[in-house]
Amino acid sequence: MSGLVLAETPFPPSVEDIFPPHLGVEWLTKFSLFLWLAMALVLIYFLVSYRDPKIVPTKKQWLAESIYGFVREGVAKDVIGHHGLRFAPYLASLFCFILVGNVFSIIPFIQVSPMAHISFPAALALCTYGLYLYQGVKKHGFAGYIKHAVYLPAPWYMQFLLIPIEFLQAFILQPVTLALRLFANMFAGHMLLLVFTLGGFALFNADSLFLKPISLVSWAMTIGLTFFELLIAALQAYVFTLLTANYLAGVLADEH
Fold first, then answer.
1. pTM of the prediction?
2. CB count in 10 Å sphere of residue 198
3. Cβ-Cβ contacts under 8 Å for 78 (sequence gap 6 or more)
4. What's the CA gap between 64 and 47, in Å, rounded?
5. What are 38-85's pLDDT values in tens digits?
6. Residue pair 158/101 in contact by the 8 Å Cβ criterion
7. CB-based contacts of 129: which residues, under 8 Å, 6+ apart?
8. Looking only at Cα atoms, what is the longest distance across the chain?
9. Cβ atoms of residues 229 and 189 within 8 Å
10. Chain-centre distance for alpha carbon 164
11. Residue 69: other Cβ atoms inside 10 A
12. Distance (Å, rounded) from C-alpha 69 to C-alpha 162?
């Protein structure tokens, strides 16, 4: 039966496989659908948790307050300093949104994170990029921020080498690497789970009796990697949020 299912399943996947079935909306892909779903889940959870706040919090309220407190105290305040509290709502929203989106990679019948598509990490990186550029110009002025971002105290004959490197790092490499780090980790995790899952079916349907038992090893690896993927999902959400706070701390600093 499994061999028949595999034989009837088109492989490799086509472009049409990225669209959800029977929704009738041409521009809506599975990645977009899961992205909106992640956004809705975060919004609904926090709205419901704080709809009627208690002095002695309920479990939902306690979890929501714990998540926000973790980002506010452990990221915004610790990394940025006393200026960080005003960025805590953005950082907490970023963390929760990426975390929920990443966890989709291990949910049955979804099994892919929207962050495994480069456009969505790139959009989040552009939001962060725009925020720290705005904060840098607001604090230092346009010319002052450019000097703050690219100038290093060094002998004049080294500046022709250092200034282009610092400019490249501050205005190009930071947003690009921020997006690529999240995308690459989630895409790689998705591919690993796919390889071991399909590899198990391929081994199970092989003609050799020796290869059939090895399919159990492949599926066991899939289960183990699923738990590892959950750890990576949380870690990548934290890293993206932490780097955002670090970039904001850099532009708000009085000195380079």
1. 0.85
2. 15
3. 84
4. 10
5. 999 999 999 998 888 888 888 889 999 999 999 999 999 999 988 889
6. no
7. 174, 175, 178
8. 74
9. yes
10. 29
11. 12
12. 39
159: its two tokens: 């500046």
Contact at 8 Å (CB) between 113 and 190?
yes
Q: Across the chain, how many H-helices and E-strands are there?
A: 9, 0
Interatomic CA distance for residues 54 and 238, integer angstroms: 28
Question: Of the ranges 48-57, 90-99, 113-122, which one carries the lowest mean pLDDT score?
Answer: 48-57
State how far the Cα of 233 lies from the Cα of 255, in Å rounded to an integer.
34
At 128, give phi and psi (nearest 5°).
-65, -40
Sign of CA dihedral 171, 175, 178, 179: negative
Instruction: Give the model's pLDDT for residue 193.
Output: 85
Taken in order 66, 72, 77, 80, the sign of the CA dihedral is positive
d(CA 51, CA 72): 21
From residue 195, how far is each of 3, 6, 105, 106, 221 by CA, in Å?
17, 14, 14, 14, 10
Q: How far apart are CA 33 and CA 256, in angstroms?
A: 42
> How is residue 149 written in tokens?
């971002």
CA-atom Rg of the chain in angstroms = 23
d(CA 101, CA 37): 8
178-to-104, 128, 185, 251 alpha-carbon distances in Å: 20, 9, 11, 16
pLDDT in tens, 7-36: 445 555 565 566 666 666 677 788 888 999
d(CA 77, CA 73): 5
